[in-house]
Fold this sequence. Notes:
Elements lengths: L2 H5 L5 E2 L4 E3 H21 L8 H5 L5 E2 L4 E2 L1 H19 L1
Antiparallel strand pairs: 1-4, 2-3, 2-4
Amino acid sequence: MKAEDVVNARFTPTKFREGYSQDEVDTFLERIRSALAADDATGAGVAGITVEDVVQSRFTPTKFRDGYSQDDVDDFLDQVVAELRTRAR
């Protein structure tokens, strides 16, 4: 996974069923993107985000307003965790 994969991540939008706050998810993804980009550029390791940060991330649930599919976001964050573990080796 590269920083551009985070930028290109797309999630199913929700409105009438529960989802995650788009703004909160987008802000967290920017943090992930930035950390991966720095590591891609320097090879010095991922700084600024840890596996624990991703695992413990929580987003405000939405209902009757725009959100992202919880399953889509959770699946993508599982991929981020796997990538961070791989880079830590």
